Amino acid sequence: MKLWKRMALWSLLLFIVIFNISGLAIIESSHASELRGELGRVLEQQQTLSSGIEVLLQNGIAGT
Question: What is the pTM of this model?
Answer without folding.
Answer: 0.63
